[in-house]
Amino acid sequence: MGSYSVVSDANLRTASVDVTDRYVEELRSLLGDPGFGLRLLLADQRGHLRVIRAEGHPIDGGRRQAEARRLTLTDGISRTLEQVGGTAVTIYPIDRRGEALGVAEVSGCMATIDRHRREVETVIGRVSAILRGEAEGDQRARELRLGLAWTAHELRGPLHAVRIILEDAAISGRDGTGTNLLRAADELSRLADGLESVLHWAVDDGRVNSRKTDLVALTHDAVDSCVAETGEDRVVVEGSDRLFVRVDALHMRSAIENLIRNALRYSTRGTKVRVIVELREGEPTIEVDNEGRGISAKDRERIFDPMGVGENGLGTGLGLFVVGRVVERHGGTIRCNEGEAGHVTFELRLPPSAGTAVGTAS
Q1: Beta bridge partners of residue 292, listed in sequence order
Q2: Fewer CB atoms near the end CB (10 Å): N or C, the chain?
Q3: Which three-class secondary structure state does DSSP give residue 222?
Q4: DSSP state of 4
Q5: Torsion angle (degrees, nearest 10) of CA 307, 309, 315, 317
Q6: From CA 160, how far away is CA 158, in angstroms rounded?
């Protein structure tokens, strides 16, 4: 068999595990109560196995058994480890279409396990089917929650910007009201035009609608929206005057806005947020640098995960996940680098085939 990929199903509900009661009793009757043992283990996000159920007298064979679990989790092949005194433990994979969920360990008399091996495999298969069904249900529920959260996150920024613009128009009276209302209308138009696409991307079935776009102009538009939303006009754009690329402008702008919004939120008030747009080693690049509290090495490993809120507990944990998803769909990369004196830099790079710079900063 080939290598399995490990998926996390740490949130399997106990109620579904309890459905295995009658199968546990089948195993007990097959193998005999004295010495019978069953242990079900599921993998967490890092591939570490945790026990979700133990019955009877499961054998713990130490390091040798732990290594056998790891191999079964990796290759999906069951293994039997003979123990002293004529006992044994057989490790079975719990999988889902090539994805390893965990393992089931059945222990008892070696001769009895051999005699009923086919029946034991059938029962373990039924237990696995229960856990697979629950895992798929949990995955669908997680995807739905994530899709709804993504959609709400992407709508919140433009709507908040419109509210700020309209409030400013109301306060300023007639002076500048027309301009402010036009800006509000532009934000609402962008929101309406992009709603269907955002919904598709939220459930990971949206298309990348690439077209020739000036990345510098797109960045300035993103800055304007973030300034309107936050009221903080401290973003400086540097680099090329123009940089034409082929991207999905709607979602790339969203990614840039999320980077700038993140920098404004977590930087020291009054400091500048620097955004550099240029070609680097032939790759269209956007760098967003801010000075603030910094990001720990531990947080830098998880900030692009969905709901990956940092140790300070701030943020929704979606903005940088959206950035990562958009960049990935464009074949690019996104990195977070810790600079000196609390500076944090996010570097977004697109593949060289995406575009060519024209002009330099004046």
Answers
A1: 267
A2: C
A3: helix
A4: P
A5: -20
A6: 5
Q: Which two tokens stand for residue 287?
A: 């760098």
Q: Report the Cα 211 to chain-centroid distance in Å.
A: 27
Strands (DSSP E) found in the chain: 5-6, 37-43, 49-56, 79-82, 87-96, 99-109, 211-214, 235-239, 242-247, 273-280, 283-291, 333-338, 343-349, 355-358
Angle at 22 between CA 21 and CA 28, to 5 degrees: 90
> Is residue 360 within a helix (H) or strand (E), and if so which, with residue range?
none
Domains in the chain and their CATH numbers?
Answer: 5-141 (3.30.450.40), 207-358 (3.30.565.10)
Burial of residue 323 (CB within 10 Å: 0-12, 13-18, 19+) is buried
Q: What is the pLDDT of residues 76-89, one digit of tens each?
A: 888 899 887 888 89
Torsion of CA 128, 129, 130, 135, to 10 degrees: 90
* Half-sphere exposure for 208 (CA within 13 Å, toward CB): 14
Tokens of 146: 């994530």
pLDDT attached to residue 13: 39
Q: Inform me whether the pLDDT recorded for 283 exceeds 90.
A: yes
User: How far apart (Å, rounded) are the C-alpha atoms in residues 344 and 337?
Assistant: 6
Q: How far is CA 25 from CA 31, 57, 123, 134, 221, in A?
A: 10, 14, 10, 21, 65
Q: β-pairing, 242-247 with 211-214? A: antiparallel
Mean pLDDT: which of 10-14, 29-33, 86-90, 124-128 is highest? 86-90
Confidence of residue 6 (pLDDT cuts 50, 70, 90): very low
| 292-302: pLDDT as tens digits | 877 777 777 77
CB contact at 8 A, 317 and 262: no
- The pLDDT tens digits of the residues spanning 308-324 come to 555 544 444 567 878 88
